[in-house]
Amino acid sequence: MIEGLFSTTNYVAAKHMLDGTMARHEAIASNLANVQTPGYKRLDLAPSFKSELQNAVASGNSASLAKLKPTLAIDTTAISLRPDGNTVQIENEMMNLSENSAEHAVELNMITGNLLRLRMAMTGKG
What we know:
- This protein is mostly helical.
- The chain has five helices and two strands.
């Protein structure tokens, strides 16, 4: 019975969204660490992950959701404003870091809310 609670579409989707923000955080950290590396190409969460996640949620199929894995890819839309070819712009990365942190907090609250409801159902206490 408890497995059913953790395999609902909403819970699995929230978990994968959290995985996506974690992967994006790794990309942002890598970008910031390589801001002075000549020729470094900016990384980000692969754009296909978001569309695949949306399609899986729309289908309501938990099995297809469970197969999703966030991956990182070179950001082909990033352009270099420097002669060394590095495509990282520190101001954009700091803004992305702030945005990603906010998304992570929301997703974490969604998962925590599910667990708190489970605890209340089991113990009768909030």
